[in-house]
Amino acid sequence: MRSTAKKFLKDTSAVIGAGVVFALLVTAIFAPYLAPYPEDVRKVHPMQRLEPPSWKHPFGTDDVGRDLLSRVIFGTRVTIIIVFSATSISMVIGVLMGIFAGYYPGWLSMAAMRIADIFLSIPQIILAIALAHALGPSIPNLILAIALTYWPLFTRIVYAETMSIKGRLFVEATLAIGAKNFRVIALHAFPNLMPSIVVRTTIGMGTVILVAAVLGFLGVGAQPPTPEWGLMVANSREYLPDAWWFATFPGMAIFVVVMAFNMFGDGLRDIIDPKLRRSSRK
Amino acid sequence: MKILAYILKRLAISLPTLFGLILVVFFLSRVIPANPVITLVGEYASPEQIKEMTERYGFDKPVYIQFFQYLKKLSHGDLGYSLRSTRPVMDELKRRLPPTLELVIASLVISVLLGIPVGVIAALRRNSWLDHCLRAFTIGGVAIPGFWLGIMLQLILGLYLNIFPLGGQMSGAEPPHVTGFMVIDSLLVPDGKLLLDALYHLTLPALTLSMPGVATIARFTRSGFLGVMQSDYIVYSRSMGLPRHLIVFKYAFRNAIVATVSQIGLIMGILLAGTVVIEYIYFWPGIGAYMVDVILHFDYDGILGTTLLIGVAFVIINITVDVIQAYIDPKVIDTL
Amino acid sequence: MRILDIEGLTVFYHTDQGAVEALDEVNFSIGKGEIVGLVGESGCGKSTMGKTIARVLPESTGEIVSGSISFQGEDLLKLSEKEINARVRGRAITIIPQDPFVSFNPVFTIGTQFSDILKYKLVAGNRKNGGRKNPLQKLMHPSSKELKKQIIQMLNRVQIPSPEKQMYKYPHELSGGQRQRVMIAMALAPQPSLVIADEPTTALDVTIGAQVLELLKDLTKQFQTSVLFITHDLGVAYDICDRITVMYAGQIMESAPTDSFFKNPCHPYTRGLLDSLPNPQGKIQTIQGDIPSLINPPKGCRFHPRCPRRVDECTEQRPELKELFANHIVHCFKPFL
């Protein structure tokens, strides 16, 4: 364990990514204390609308006079909630489906894999837009929509791994001794799957944030007055080019956060993957 | 001939998935609570108007009957009517496909022309500060939100510096529609002013759309190239004294390209997905913007038609990529 | 007459776990037209030797710490990369790799790869001779017809049937034996002084390997080419080598003409090796212990932890060279006599 930690620390970008993700979490938790005007999540100050960046408002104010910095800070909460919920839900659905389909072959598992293929045959974002709009714009629905588009990716990987593990001799041996199927799955199959799942999850988080932002931008995700970054960029459009800060800072926040998750995910994959390759893959 | 058989086989396999796609989308769209008829006639329509509309579009029949009716029409090549524009969906798609193709092809070209050299340079200068910068770029390129990048480019290059137009394919005058590709049609006239106009309009959207493409291609080219340089056959070439420029540009390059081509399918997926947002921002009259439109307004036939088109597009792309790979990597032919 | 003379060669590999001392003050030589076998277990440093002579150690990890490699009157270690690549590699020194399948580039035909090796030979050697006409000058910018002729000729020599057709095949379309024959052809075509054969028959079936060995022996004797034959298989070494050198953990243990080597093994390790070969008596002897880690190798003679004849000096100093009979040398304080 210690040597893997040391290897991770040698990877500069991974460390930076991890650092930013950590900062993100901290910001989200302590948002009310970090934001200069925490009440601006709801309160409007029409007199101060569209003020450029200044010492008082480092990011300027938005179209109804709210301090943009505070809203961006509170946006971290929205982002964290969305990304962790959506990823968890899709991971649970996807992994369960994958293990089930891989372990109990039959027409049911074929059907499950076919459905996964169908979901994967069109770009994820289109599906997400459709689902989000159909379910109605709100954050819980947004989370659900994203989760529903993301689970097939997990299922595919887990299915393949489960099938290959099932064929391995040690599983046959364990079953021969009389262990019950469920035990075998829980104790043997699962630990072998963990690395792939972890890698897929962290790499996927960046994508989830981007999708959520796009949905917010298009208006099918978070709704005003929620301080969601994509939504803020959308609102900013009609005030361009004068209120450049309104479009710039929330978008930059998305960029920085996604980049951090990607760097962190890549670093994780680099230390986990070499071990992965030793297992019976292609 | 083997190739032809392979293509047919792949097409046949993908039919059930496409069918499943239509099925799923159809039923999903019918079970959502919103009523498209209201969207059509407005909230203040009278009950008789609503009833008339509902019957006209067949929404009163049970869902599975609606589905069979749709399939029947589909077998005649009739994709139905777009509720929004009251034009046949087929016409809409035909009109909007060329602009999207123009944009995607331009972005693909940019991605390849920029991405491969960046990847090769980064690989050759491994671990130098240049390599680190380029690698940061590859990570950033896929992290940057497309809509934000587009807005920033519109802001800086469009509004502040006033170099590029903000949206649309052309500013008013258009060449006669031969292909639907503004650039090609302008060349066909030929009209230099129109051509310039078309290119100016194409630049910002193509740049925005290609950003994740460039980053991804650069990344895969770099790692593919590095992997190849470690391989035994390159070590052998070195041991037998082949000059370095030959090893890098003839041998390693060729092997790395093979790896990159296999990613083209992935790149196309990224580009097509990106068109949705990019076309929306740049008011580009393509399939992506249409898709957003029909989804947001519950235009059923529009949704189904566009989904089918996208599904077919992906099937074609995947098969094409596999066939190309067979041509450039001799080993693959045997595995088909 | 010696064509290759290695003195005091020390090579390290730098890894995450530390510096691996792969070669320790190695002295080694090869005579003209001689087939010398370099024998030892996996990890003893024999492949490293081959790679060091050709100067193809991995750039990021391999380091030549000290020593000299004298070849045709020059110290190879003092030459620049450019000079080695132009004059030595693929020309005066060629290699036959272990696994011909992975050593061929899969996307080019063998004809293309063969002709590239012949084509790109700078004639710096000829320039040195003041531009005198030299049969090798034909190799300078040869026409493709010329090249094709040469290639077909060589392929015939290694008994590849219908070479005009086989030239256009891809590596995966040939059998393992054929691939290795082509490798031999490519190694001998430039008429080198030294061929480094790194376990050339390991990846082949036994019968095919035997044919390949015969071929190699024939051709190198014909051309009077010296061969550094690296292998872990003593049986193969017996078949083809004029002289056999044994390595252990990066040190040379013993070196002798083949007959003398098998009749009178003097080093305790060599004895152990030969005793561990299956024999009609049935019993297989093993050598106690394990190969030491080369990151922190034993001092003195690296075999001493496992040596039944160990004395105190063995643990402190490297045993000096002793020439026991004609050309039969050992590095040992207490050799068998």
Q: Your description of this structure?
A:
The complex is a heterotrimer of chains A (282), B (336) and C (337). Chain A has 282 residues and is mainly α. Chain A is 75% helix and 0% strand. Chain A is elongated. In chain A, 45% of the residues are buried. Among the domains of chain B are: 45 residues, no CATH class; 190 residues, MetI-like fold (Orthogonal Bundle). In chain B, 78% of the residues lie in helices and 0% in strands. Chain B is built from 15 helices and no strands. In chain B, helix 12 runs antiparallel to helix 14. Chain B is globular. The model of chain B has no long low-confidence stretch (mean pLDDT 82). Chain C folds into two domains: 232 residues, P-loop containing nucleotide triphosphate hydrolases (Rossmann fold); 55 residues, no CATH class. In chain C, the strands form two sheets. An eight-stranded mixed beta sheet of chain C has the order 6-7-8-3-9-10-12-11, sandwiched between helices. In chain C, helix 4 crosses helix 6, helix 6 crosses helix 8 and helix 8 packs parallel to helix 9. Chains in contact: A-B, B-C.
Strand percentage of chain B = under 5%
Distance between the termini of chain C: 28 Å
Derived structural class of chain C: alpha/beta
Q: Helix count of chain C? A: 13
Explain the layout of strands and helices.
The complex is a heterotrimer of chains A (282), B (336) and C (337).
Chain A: H1 2-10, H2 12-29, H3 31-34, H4 68-103, H5 107-120, H6 124-135, H7 139-167, H8 169-177, H9 181-218, H10 229-236, H11 244-278
Helix pairs in contact in A: 2-4, 2-11, 4-5, 4-7, 4-9, 5-7, 6-7, 6-9, 7-9, 9-10, 9-11, 10-11
Chain B: H1 2-31, H2 36-41, H3 47-56, H4 63-75, H5 89-124, H6 129-143, H7 146-160, H8 182-188, H9 192-230, H10 232-239, H11 244-261, H12 264-282, H13 287-296, H14 300-328, H15 330-335
Helix pairs in contact in B: 1-14, 5-6, 5-9, 5-12, 6-9, 7-9, 7-12, 8-9, 9-11, 9-12, 12-13, 12-14, 13-14
Chain C: E1 2-15, E2 18-31, E3 35-39, H1 46-53, E4 62-71, E5 74-75, H2 81-88, E6 93-96, H3 100-103, H4 110-119, H5 124-128, H6 144-157, H7 163-166, H8 176-188, E7 194-198, H9 206-223, E8 226-231, H10 234-240, E9 243-248, E10 251-257, H11 258-263, H12 268-275, H13 312-316, E11 321-325, E12 328-331
Parallel strand pairs in C: 3-8, 3-9, 6-7, 7-8
Antiparallel strand pairs in C: 1-2, 1-4, 4-5, 9-10, 10-12, 11-12
